[in-house]
Amino acid sequence: MTTDASLSSLPPAPSWAGPMLRGLRRVGRVLAWTVLTIAALATVVPFLWMLGVAFRTPADLYSDPSRLWPDHWSVSGFHAVFTQLPFFRLAVNTVVFAGGTTVLLLLIDSLCAYALARLKFRGQNFVFWTILLTLMVPFQVMLIPLFLTVFHLGWLNTFQGLIVPRSVSALGIFMLRQFFVKIPKELDEAARVDGAGPLRIYWQIILPLARPALASLFVIQFMALWNDFLWPLVISSSTDMRTLPSALTLFSSTSGVDHAALMAGAAISLAPLAIAFLLAQRFFTEGIAATGIK
Amino acid sequence: MAHLADQATDAPARSRGPDRRSRGRGWRSRFNPAYLFVAPAFLLAAVFILWPIVQSGWMSLHDWTIGDDSHKWLGFGNYTELWHDSRFWNALKVTIVYAVFVVIGQVAIGLALAQWLRRTTWYTMLLRSAFFFPTIASLAVTGIVWKFLLDPQVGLVDGWLGKIGVHSQNWLQDTHLALPALIAVGIWKNFGFSMIVLLAGVQGVRQDLIEAATLDGAGAIARFRHVTLPALRPAILFTVVIGTVNALQLFDLTYVMTDGGPLFHTESIVMYLYQRGFVDFRLGYASAIAWVLFLIIIAVSVVQLRMLRFRDDD
């Protein structure tokens, strides 16, 4: 069926088909599209299998692990993940951490980017180049002192400990600044003539015009934090304050783990990003391709 | 990073003297509201980015162990210890092997797919989404899924291999198979990223040049090598540098799937840093590892930027 469908949308000839006969070329194309389709299916098989295991009972899984789907569907895995883990709490933690940090970061970064792009002040170049320099430093360099700082503030195992240190991003400031610079200056001038101050120009002119850049930054930052592992692992060691990736990891290494529960947890933790990706793919691909954050 | 470096050249306009409007108007002339906009970011960055960078450099010069408040000055003692630490060299080797294979794999597959899926139809878009999907999923959570996929008892991989008569392998417990398995998962996770970056490059290749080359009798391979590849250089550079920087920071996958085992065969640099810092609480030594990693990343990026930018033989 898939090859049929693809025939209607044939791509240009594969590079190796070169000067071959037309008929042979057609066979080659069909073959190539079949291989591509199989490769695409193989790429998502781990996710399909994960879903399948989430709905299987242990007996069903051990009897034949090579099947993708269960013989008997069971939702006990989804039930078990909520009883074996404080799963609801973990999900809330992850939402608060990823959502809270991203919103704060967008606000703080855009304020700074606005000043860098549209205002003039002494030390502007210093601030800009400092941002560029810190972009190159890997997070691991800051991790240990950050852990100590959070510890001394008494913020281990708290939301402020998870959120505040991550709420400014050099990359975010840089990205937004590059976008703000391109907005025509005449808009500010006109607003200023009408008596608007910088805060009003920022809020009522620049931010609305920068919606695509803000959306992209929101999506990639939210994704990066939702998926983040090392930072929550270090900052939140108590069961109640973990986020989904680190909690599921610790759960997965306990002996005699319930596979269905674990895969149900994994599926739920992947679901929000998967749905967002299906709805707004462009923001993911553009944001990730531009920044390399993932 | 190449991207960023290119864009960085249009640095902010150098201040052209004081703002005309604010000159000589009471307190407004002395206080520039721009500082209010910069202040939140600057204060947070000072405390949570700039100071930690300085502090970790400072800590790496001390014996800074939790539970021992003497913080003895060691000079470069931690670094010389690191030089003689065979476990560090092993971690470095593991990390480099992982990075080399993952980057080559992800860029090669990404390039092939970008070339194949360059037309935009509903079907290529569907395939692209499938190939890109692993990129957005959490590395730790996909690591958990892969750990069970590779499980000899309940895993799909051995289940399917068993059907074609291949004996089941204990992939993640075998000293010869564990790192290759991680590399395979690393490639699976990242090739979609390279595909998307390269796709933009492939679509930017000028079709008239391809046609001209065809008329001149250039074959498909020659066209790819002499027309497509040079046009793709910035995109390849970007995905190679970003891919390498990411791969050198390998942590989540090995923590989740193998815990550095079997027998340290998959212990990466960041994994070792985590061990020393957050298990043994030798924060000074762990900071030294972080700085060495930083220097390695800078060095590798610079070499890649030079090699890929200045090789102009085609």
TrEMBL record, chain A:
The species this protein was found in: Catenulispora pinistramenti
InterPro entries assigned to the protein according to its UniProt record, in alphabetical order: MetI-like, MetI-like_sf
UniProt topology in membrane: Multi-pass membrane protein
Taxonomic path: Bacteria, Bacillati, Actinomycetota, Actinomycetes, Catenulisporales
Keyword Transmembrane helix: yes
Family, per entry: Belongs to the binding-protein-dependent transport system permease family.
Main location: membrane
Residue span(s) of domain ABC transmembrane type-1: 91-280
Domain of life: Bacteria
Residues spanning the membrane: 30-55, 95-117, 126-151, 163-180, 201-226, 260-280
Keyword Hydrolase: no
Protein name, as recorded: Carbohydrate ABC transporter permease
Subcellular location: Cell membrane
Record keywords, A-Z: Cell membrane, Membrane, Transmembrane, Transmembrane helix, Transport
From TrEMBL, chain B:
Primary site of residence: membrane
InterPro entries: ABC_transporter_permease, MetI-like, MetI-like_sf
Alphabetically ordered keywords of this record: Cell membrane, Membrane, Transmembrane, Transmembrane helix, Transport
Membrane-crossing residue ranges in chain numbering: 34-54, 96-117, 129-149, 177-200, 231-251, 283-303
CDD domains given in the database record: TM_PBP2
Record-linked Pfam families: BPD_transp_1
Domain ABC transmembrane type-1: 92-304
Protein's UniProt name: Sugar ABC transporter permease
Organism in which the protein naturally occurs: Catenulispora pinistramenti
